[in-house]
Amino acid sequence: MGNRRVVIDPITRIEGHLRIEVEVDENNVVQKAYSSSTLWRGIELILKGRDPRDAGLMAQRICGVCTYSHYKAGVEAVENALGVEAPYNARLVRSLLNESLYMHDHVVHFYHLHGLDWVDVVSALSADPAKASKLAFKYSDSPIATGTDELTAVQKRVKEFVDKGQLGPFANAYWGNGTYKFSPEQNLIALSHYLKALEVQRVAAQMFAIFGAKQPHPQSLVVGGVTCVRDILSPTRLAQWKEKYKIVKDFIDRAYQADIIMAAEAYGTEETVLGGVGVKNFLAADAFMLNRTENLFQSGYIKNGDLSQVYDIDDMKIEEDVTHAWYKGTTPLQPYDGVTDPEYTGFIDGDTVNGEAKIIDETQKYSWVKAPRYDGEAMEVGPLSCLLVNYARGNKKVQNEVGAFLKRTGLPVGALFTTLGRTAARMLQTKLISDNAIITFNSLVENIKSDDSTYTKFEINPDKEYTGRFIGEVPRGTLSHWVRIKNGLIENYQAVVPTTWNAGPMDGNGTIGPYEASLVGLKLEDPAKPLEVLRVIHSFDPCMSCSVHVMDMKGVELSEFKVTPMSSGAAC
Amino acid sequence: MKILLLGIGNLLFGDEGIGVHFINYIGEKYRFEGEPKIDLVDGGTLAQRLIPIIVEYDHVIIVDTINAPGVQAGEVYFFDFDAIPDTVDWQGSAHEVEMLQTLNMMDLAGDRPTTMIMGVVPTVIEATEFSLSEGVAAAVPLMEKTLLHYLKSMGIDAVKKAEVDIQAILPNSYRVLDAYCI
Lengths: 572, 182
Hints:
heterodimer, A: alpha+beta, three-stranded antiparallel beta sheet, 16 helices, B: disordered C terminus
């Protein structure tokens, strides 16, 4: 019997649209995997011919989650091209914003997108709240939202919700799958934190907005600096930031950290989360300015999982391959010369475990995502890469945090190179950021006592040609924006986003990327309920970067709500 | 009592941006008098990350593109979110963590305000440009009339402050400042 094809489309609980196809053998072990983004992403085209000072504002619309990441990247790529350095205050503010974003983003990702791959909500409904309340102290000295009364209330609230038949956010999980490992009590603790995180994420969004001017779509960055001058100079605003920061940090310490320690214990022997690192090359960029001399994380890359050697990044060795992506051409291009010229070829008819269906033709083009390569090699980017590169660099803060986690959970360093490790790395990165954001904040407070500059003047000479790039870390990994400016206008613009590094298709040499490689060898309990695939893919935090947004009301008879010129006066 | 008029969509993708373009158009054209107070916010494609903003209001009107079996491009729908049947199946939509799930998540947390949805059916959502198709642009007067009538029933008068052509504001929609700041 040959391999059978399993199609998962869409992968749920992600931002954007992603299709995964795997071929399983007779033992349900994945032999081959294909990753396809099925939404057209053409941001590069809309920026052509625009004023470079607008690059950030437009680029922030690429994404419905990381608006700030693309905003900052667009602004800093142009600064890099023009040779402008924003003042120290401005750079600290940008760093603070990035820190706030991570604290928001990673909490939301773990609890509301990825968490249900680890937490069986149905099982939580049969837990003993008193027992769970006691158990919570095993994972934190001062657990949050786990009092017996509170857990009882959570159980009641969720049960009522589920009983209404509207599973909503809890739908499309695979309850009861044998690879869920939490006890009912552990599930209940995590479920309570799921709800608590809904509250805390609001505070995180407000913390971001203090220096972002507003949320969504921050407006406080400009080429040359920042515009939130009055916020920086207002003791009230600064105090507000600190208040909100404490609340979010508290949740990270007492819930997020505790739940990952709990997961490490429960899932430490679950085989389907102990693989999942098929590409063992990891790349990361500099991030989080703490003061004039220190960044929290350093850049570099490691190869073949070898932590004994770190290499410096050479920008010019980054290229994008489109052999199997729906764009014209087959020659890998450096992003300064990148071309985004669509050539859609669609799917073919084929056999799947669910019968005849449209499937990927892996011999042809099959995704809207390009395949970025460094020196010809596939690289994983993201929190795990950041930690591994910094661990290998000898970054003391990272080594201490990772070391303490491994000691506490009894896991070896090798456990980092797994799906479980990738999920843990996101928490550890959040913890490091939340512990150190206060240093950035204090640097700002100290500096504004004697220096209030927030903007550096610059000129764009229409007779000159400029090229510049931003390379930095954003919640999903290493992001770079590349701009070429001619006649005072943007001539070419390319964004190489974290998800393309991880989710890209096969390249012209037949090398596969991290998503595809992470699935090979994975054993599925039941191909019709591929929870294991979701767990591996979600651990990367997929974000397909071009958010198109249509309310899709499948199964709803909308006609009774239709407004016509005749009825508009009387509507509702 | 506070009302939020929330425009949803990605203005880089033609008709996809109508929710955002529409609230910008309304904001340019009218000022609002009376109680309750109303704020206009460009929500982009943020979905659940809009929860912190939505919970600040007693009443939210969401303007978005909408899709369902049998609907035609340019058609306008207006309804109370609570009127959607429980059997609604939005799992498997292309936009997994999106507005409907966001509202559902707020139900779970128990703090969703009264929610009206104004939806228009898009045609062009693949072109990377600031533009609206003819059909969707033609729906704007109906959306406007429906909105103003509804606001009036809530006690809000819209006073015209300028003549505005929605096509003319499209190219700059990405830099319009919202009313909402935290």
